[in-house]
Fold Ribosome-recycling factor.
Amino acid sequence: MSEEDLDIDLDDLQRRMDGAMAALRTEFASLRTGRASAAMLEPVMVEAYGQRTPINQVGTINVPEPRMVTINVWDKSMVGKVEKAIRESGLGINPQLNGTIIMLPIPELNEERRRELTRVAAQYAEHARVAIRNVRRDGMDQLKKAKAAGMSEDEQKIWSDEIQELTDKAIAAVDKALETKQEEIMQV
């Protein structure tokens, strides 16, 4: 075995943990906080032209004021499908039609809905933690293979500590992002 075969790719592990964090940020952006945001429509898929299509690929999404999102649907025949997709998305928003423009007034969140959204945010954070721990497990599996290939106990301990440090940093980032998002949701 060459020396390269015994090295663990920390950059790959870091990239994968960063990917879990990016996915978490995207999920957090889709959570409604009482303020209008184009990102809240990202998870909404429209049945368009025989396949499920992201809403931003059938129209232009704008935020003209703090409590309003508008979607200017490019194809008139798609307006009904976009409206249906929004109603069925579970966002709790009632679309209003104005020709090819769909207006989404963002209602004020009540206390119960805010608490529910903080629980959803916590679930998203837990999914990110699980993804990060899975990356850690993959790194530890690489270490076991390297040990079997002739890596010394001392090297294995050093690599193990580095992988654990990456994991701890990533999980701390998830926890901080969750705390920030929950504060944002609970803000009246």
Summary: The mean pLDDT is 86. The chain has two domains: 9-28+110-186, 35-105.
